[in-house]
Protein: Gamma-tubulin complex component
Amino acid sequence: LLEYLQAMRNYFLQEAGDTMYDFYTAIFDKVQEKESWQQPSFLNVLLQEAVGQRYPEDSRRLSVFLEPLDPSRKKHPVNNLEVLTLSYKVPWPVDIVISSECQKIYNQVFLLLLQIKWAKYSLDTLRFSDFAEVTKKLEGSPVEEAKLKQPINQQIHRMCLLRVKLMHFVNSLHNYIMTRILHSTGLEFQHQVQEAKDLDQLIKIHYRYLATIHDRCLLREKVSFVKEAIMKVLNLVLIFSDRWQAGFGAWKIESIDKMESDFKNCHMFLVTILNKAVCRGSFPHLESLALSLMAGFEQC
Structure:
């Protein structure tokens, strides 16, 4: 049972960092290159190759499925990953503890992590050198630069500053989920499992653990408005990354204005909401995230 519980954390909660990195970055690269990736055969080969290198015994048990996505959600890039569902074959009697209902909760956390890591990867792979050729070209053409509402160097500077602000937000969120929530809660859970006296107690401990991470990852309906604001920022990150990679000529000064304004509004909303929640004592675990985002907001 302990081995199977560890496997759930390794893949669904991505504790096996190197293994899952190999899997999801191959998907992210396909997305960035505008190539097709939503093919079950491609995804399963990718997953089995990544898992087989370090955990060969799990490569036969783990698979990935594609679920249909609501057409209304396709307009936001960050939602495109919602088609992915992991499945892990758990034998009897272990499936009494790790039931199919439990796997649904694990999958919700897995998807959230995937969306955060997608945003993080999109920002991490951007390079300042992407603007070097554009700058030289426009500097050599005073006529072209005269047409711009703001000097090219100022626009690039604003893009670089916005990237840093977005990176601070995404890294703060990523660190909060991976360390403050999943790692800390996982240690408590392992201790409780070791002390369990019977099967009923094990089932209760496991359900309580899943309910805790589901709650603290802001996946509860009660705090859905907080998750929505976070998703807006992650979506903005993907749009920003796409514009950056498209090159200077593909976007206008107005698009920088809108991205800066949208990020500031979402950031301000989250900082205000989280601080109120922490002050009321209703969500004490959010304090570290609130403080981190507040530091980033003050810098803005």
